[in-house]
Design the sequence.
């Protein structure tokens, strides 16, 4: 069974530029999560989807961040414009149902904003 | 709000036993999870405790005391490959809605030395 796929793995951009991250969850997993992980910290939830509906986006900085999950499968997280403080690893995770206690994480996208 | 405390670093000798503690303060608590993350890798699920007591999975065990808001991860017969960061995460949410989320601690960096 293929795991959670994310691309790109690394991205370096200048501040004020836009950037997008893509995630393909495990097949059949209805719940998808985007996390941000700063160096030396644990993952912090940005947004959670159940199928195509964003059910928890309270931690998403909505002035510059946006996300979508069309057709309830793949998801894209966008930052526009990026700031220096956005440098982090962006992790995508999925689980079969909202009630499942195990989340399956992808390898993440390491973003560096210069 | 919620908070989790775990030691930032632990060093142990190959073949030994190490215990990583986690204390938490949160509302709407449903359980405590543990994840392992190697440098540059994805967090991977290790264990989940919803009830008080000890859960054993091979060389790894996890314990929870809900009354003390405390849990620990026990790693036995340490191997060099166990060198990684270990995160405790509280599972919170709304059982009526069947939706939950994880809040992660800052992680404990375990170094296994020969």
Sequence:
């Amino acid at each position: 069974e293929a795991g959670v796929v994310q691309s790109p793995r690394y991205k370096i951009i200048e501040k004020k530029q836009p950037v997008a991250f893509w995630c393909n969850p495990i097949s059949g997993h209805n719940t998808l999560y985007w996390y941000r992980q700063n160096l030396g910290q644990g993952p912090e939830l940005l947004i959670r989807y159940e199928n195509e509906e964003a059910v928890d986006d309270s931690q998403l900085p909505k002035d510059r961040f946006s996300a979508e999950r069309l057709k309830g499968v793949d998801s894209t997280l966008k930052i526009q414009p990026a700031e220096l403080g956005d440098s982090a690893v962006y992790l995508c995770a999925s689980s079969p149902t909202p009630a499942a206690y195990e989340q399956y994480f992808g390898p993440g996208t390491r973003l560096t904003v210069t | 709000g919620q908070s989790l405390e775990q030691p930032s670093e632990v060093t142990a000798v190959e073949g030994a036993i190490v215990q990583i503690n986690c204390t938490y303060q949160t509302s709407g608590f449903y359980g405590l999870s543990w994840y392992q993350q190697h440098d540059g890798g994805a967090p991977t699920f290790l264990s989940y405790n919803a009830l008080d007591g000890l859960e054993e999975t091979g060389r790894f065990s996890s314990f929870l005391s809900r009354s003390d808001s405390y849990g620990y991860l026990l790693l036995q017969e340490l191997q060099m490959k166990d060198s990684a960061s270990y995160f405790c995460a509280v599972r919170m949410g709304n059982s009526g809605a069947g939706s939950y989320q994880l809040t992660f601690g800052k992680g404990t960096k375990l170094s296994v030395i020969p």
